[in-house]
Amino acid sequence: MKALVSAMVVAGATAAASYAVGQTQEPISPIQPPKQINLGMSELGKKLFFDPRLSKSGFISCNSCHNLSMGGSDNLQTSIGDKWQQGPINSPTVLNSSLNLAQFWDGRAADLKEQAGGPIANPGEMAFSHTLALDMLASIPAYQREFKQVFGKDKLDIDQVTLAIAEFEKTLVTPNARFDQWLLGKQDALTQDELTGYKLFKESGCVGCHNGEAVGGNSFQKMGLVEPYKGNEKAEGRSAVTGKDADRFNYKVPTLRNVELTYPYFHDGAANTLTEAVDVMGRIQLGKKFTQAENAKIVAFLKTLTGDQPSFQLPILPPSADNTPRPTPFK
Amino acid sequence: MKALVSAMVVAGATAAASYAVGQTQEPISPIQPPKQINLGMSELGKKLFFDPRLSKSGFISCNSCHNLSMGGSDNLQTSIGDKWQQGPINSPTVLNSSLNLAQFWDGRAADLKEQAGGPIANPGEMAFSHTLALDMLASIPAYQREFKQVFGKDKLDIDQVTLAIAEFEKTLVTPNARFDQWLLGKQDALTQDELTGYKLFKESGCVGCHNGEAVGGNSFQKMGLVEPYKGNEKAEGRSAVTGKDADRFNYKVPTLRNVELTYPYFHDGAANTLTEAVDVMGRIQLGKKFTQAENAKIVAFLKTLTGDQPSFQLPILPPSADNTPRPTPFK
């Protein structure tokens, strides 16, 4: 993690130094390297993120559905949970998720720490319980020692677990996208088509919701603003959290950072390609039918939002002890 | 990969230099660093090893059941396959598997290359087909380029896929175990109990099958030599390959390298702990009932066989293209 953070800091510094005159008036801002990371906590969180023993089956880890080899998502329409249950919603990317105003599509978790506890105990996802997860972790001497070292407490609790996972997730930002290089002043970072795509993205109104550092993630919006969205609605959206009928089919606007990697698109994963996603968004959110050429240019712009992917050593997990409760995948 | 191989070479060299007078008469020999690795091929193989798109569901990769965070196994009694099917047998570790005389518990694959094609097309495991896997890979420009660079051919075929995976797997050796340090002459690498355990391991006959560089992996033996093994036999063993009734319940002797990490034990994963495994093996293979103290010392010795785990950056996979066939987990 030291190496990762250093690399990011260096990348940020280099970028700032090279492109002295940046685009400061743009509605999108460059991704910043993570700040004030507790490295010990983040290293522990990385292990937990990759540990399938946090699931009942011993088979599903955070990384199963937020796969850091694949843009922090699972690239499935909806996720696979315990006993191969079909999830109700598309797995959002964990990349840059620290920049979201809230977590989950409906924003039901205020922050990453609150989010991290959800899937572990969700019967349709990891199907475990916080108590069982703690029993498992506490039985493993190397985890015991590492928790004690990081948190300075004798007793493990779920707050420590979710804090550590959240701390690791804060490191999962993706700076240095070509678009950010352009924002920072590197004029030739984008092609003419990509720049035209960005212009269309701004002028058509996409940027109204997809703006800021994460190019989204900072508001809830109705899916189907101009025209109703014809999806197979299993989720009701933000109204499930607020209880307000007006919030029905409202979802957190997803980040467009690394959107090239996070297919399929929308809360229901119904759009397989960026071309399809741009077409549907144009029609139902903006009342605009993009021509094929316009669509292609917007897609070209979107692909410039792919940043440096998190780079770290695959974590090695401490082995279970003789008294560690064993997973029960088939019970 | 360069870093990995260099690190291993350095580790090997250091060890050889420091401990000039080694134990050359022992029936177990130190793990050697991997030799003559084609780095380009191995890097490609690493991506394939981690790519769940080689399965029908898009959810199961080689690493799902041979998890390199967990000793190259899944630590489950039997593995979970497509649609949560329960596998018939315990997932053997991929660590040091290049040292096995043949692959799979029944040795039905001659080498790693032949093995690698099996799970992809097994309806109970990744449930894909070689044709579909190739269609998927060929549709992804970055994979196309990398295959062409490594193999110099215009057309992708399954031999290239399995060769690349096998090349990566050849790097997955675990040198520098404390026991190897002792073998190489570092007298204080083992405690007295561990040395006594090793002496018991040799004198009781365990070493008759568990010997050589991998401490096993180099012969087929009957499970239940002295006393019948009382397992829930779903697999018939080596006879499924040879057709000979004499080979019934014969299995490849598993490597004991990293055995601390590869629980549960036996082809059916029925033994949860090393204590249990040592007890059962003593009784049914050697006709010997180890005392609790003897058992504990043998277990202490076995834990000295944990070597340096493979250390590499989590691979980043190239994204699917618009025309890449999408996984079908729920069909």
TrEMBL record, chains A, B:
Cofactor descriptive note: Binds 2 heme groups.
GO CC, one annotated term: periplasmic space
Signal sequence extent: 1-22
Domain of life: Bacteria
Location in the cell: Periplasm
Keyword set, alphabetical order: Electron transport, Heme, Iron, Metal-binding, Oxidoreductase, Periplasm, Peroxidase, Signal, Transport
Gene3D superfamilies according to UniProt: Cytochrome c-like domain
Record SUPFAM superfamilies: Cytochrome c (SSF46626)
Cofactor(s) the protein requires to work: heme
Main location: periplasm
Domain Cytochrome c: 40-148, 192-306
Molecular function as annotated in GO: cytochrome-c peroxidase activity; electron transfer activity; heme binding; metal ion binding
Chain residues that bind heme c 1: C62, C65, H66
Residues at which heme c 2 binds: C206, C209, H210, M281
Modifications the protein undergoes after translation, according to the UniProt entry: Binds 2 heme groups per subunit.
UniProt name for this protein: Cytochrome C biogenesis protein CcsA
Native source organism of the sequence: Malikia spinosa
